[in-house]
Structure formats: C-alpha cells, structure tokens
Amino acid sequence: MKFFEDDSPFIIAEMSGNHNQSLEKALKIVDLAAEAGVNALKMQTYTADTITLDSSGEDFFISDPKSLWKGRTLYDLYTEAYTPWEWHKEIFTHAGEKGLKCFSTPFDVTAVEFLEELDCPCYKVASFENTDLPLISAIASTGKPMIVSTGMATISDIDRLLNTAARSGCSDVTLLKCTSCYPAPPSSCNILTIPHMKATFGTRVGISDHTMGIGVSLASIPLGGRVIEKHFTDSRAEGGVDSAFSMEPAEMKMLVEESRTIYEALGQVTYGATEAETSSAKHRRSLYFTRDMKEGEIIQDGDVRSVRPGFGLPTEFIDVVKGRKVTRDVTKGTRVSWDAI
C-alpha cells in the first residue's frame, strides 16, 4: 500500500514530547488524533545521548530570550522530550488499530536501524537535520518515502538533499515549507514558496506548520500543498515541551474537515454553469409582459420588463421587442417569446 494513497490533503499529527513521559497519555493522544480524522501520527526517535551531549557548556545552553525553552540545556530538554524506544512498538500497533499510519523522525543512524525493525513505512527529516547528508543517506537507503521539513534550507541545501536521497535509493520525497521557530508568526511563513518549491524540485509539497490556529495550513492547499503537519496534544493547559504551539483535538478536527472542503472546492478552471448550477439558470432575468395585451397592440415602454425568472427572451433583446406588435392576446406574466411578437 502506498503511503500517500491519493492527492487529497494528508494530515499528520505530530505527538513529539507532548506525552509528558506517560505511555498512557501517549496512547490517549493516538486515540484523539484518530477521532479528529487525521491520516497519520508522527513520533520522534532519539535519546538525549543520540541527539546531543550531556554538557552545560555555553554551546549547549539555550539562551535565546524568545525560546520556549530558555534557560535549559539541550540534554535536559531532550531527556524530558524524548519518547522511550520501548514504547514505540506499542504506539505503532495502537495507531494501526485506530486506522492511522504511524511513522517517525529518526535523528541518527541507530534510530533508523531501530525503526526499520518496526517496519516504519515512512521517514521524516526534521528541519535541523536537513543538511545532515549522512543521515539523509541512511534514511534514503531504506527505500521508504521521505518527508522533509525545509526550515532554514536554501535552494542548494534542498538540491543536495534530493541528490543524496536519490543516490542512496529514495526518489519519493515530499518537501514541507517550514519556519523553524516555535510558535511561528504567520508573517514569517512565506507560503508562496510552496508552488515555487513544487515547480523547482518536482516533488509533492506541503507545510510543517508551527503557527497557532489553522489558517496558514489551510492556505497552503490552494497553493499546491498536499501534506500538512501540525504538533498535537490532548490539552495545552496540561503542559508539555511542545504544547504551547500544539493543536488540541477540536482544532485538529476542524483542520481535517476544512482541508477536505477546500480541496473539494478547488476543482479546475471553468466558466459557465456547472452541473450543480443547472437548476439555478431559471433564476436569471428575462423578458416578461407586464400587462394584458390584445393581438396587434404595439409594445411600448413598460409593456415588457427584465425580471426573474429566466424563461423568457434574454434581456439583451428588450430594444428589439419594443415597437413590435403582439401576435396573439397575452396576459400579464407571459414570457416574451419570438412567436408572441
């Protein structure tokens, strides 16, 4: 079975570390994602030791005043946020039972090897790893589809990534426009890049959206975006490393429903009445007699008018009709027709 079964919007709920180190909560998030109607649940596969070093040195300390995680070391943050590897199989199985495709973001080669043991059907590459070509090569060598967040990536970065993936055995790559800040202001999203990215690289495209709300995600669909990834939690109020910019169940359900509506509405470039409008044509304006008239009377100003419905002569002929004689008796409300004048 293909990972993407058709061209309709594919919605991914990113659990990340919102389970707060509770397997019960993680499974609840799976249930809620399924109830919201998403297509897939995504995890992250790393440990603090595989993603960083246990160091309190300046380079490993989060000092950005705008960061949600200011004042913490990377090691401390990832110790809290990681999903225990021994949970993965149960989460994968539970997601499958709920009708969700489950996959993950590996952050090093050992994570790729581990996920292969679980027959992970697809791999995600995070923005911060999209220039890690050895990791890209390891993921691509599985032959599975890849979804890549392009946060901070230049055109040449993306080109190198795609070339590396192709050489290593993966030609099925989806590129997601992404702004790597948390939460992301809509003004920084530049989603007009989405159609340009599709035209430039010829891949499936979409968005990894870190903004609050669903507007930016929905706006990506008319631009050609077909994959939407949003962080997901059962409750922002309960906290969690990514909860501040994560979607709650009601919001995710709305995203799913509205994305389907927008996709259905796109259609194709067309003018004239659609099949759905056929019955509405009768409500256009046309010419009708406004009074009873006898055969032979000459039609004067006001004797015919442009009114609804649209069964009479088109209104463009009103000046042609004036001055003509009626060929038979007519009553008020009779359609003007060529055989009546």
Write a concise synopsis of the structure shown.
With 341 residues, this protein is α/β, with parallel strands linked by helices. The chain has 11 helices and 10 strands.
Describe this structure in words.
Strand 4, helix 6 and strand 5 form a beta-alpha-beta unit. The chain is of the alpha/beta class and 341 residues long. It is elongated, with a radius of gyration of 30 Å. The longest helix has 18 residues. The model has no long low-confidence stretch (mean pLDDT 95). The protein folds into two domains: 222 residues, TIM Barrel, CATH 3.20.20.70; 60 residues, Antifreeze-like/N-acetylneuraminic acid synthase C-terminal domain (Type Iii Antifreeze Protein Isoform Hplc 12). It is built from eleven helices and ten strands. Helix content is 31%, strand content 14%. The chain has an eight-stranded parallel β-sheet with strand order 3-2-1-8-7-6-5-4. The protein has a two-stranded antiparallel ribbon with strand order 9-10.
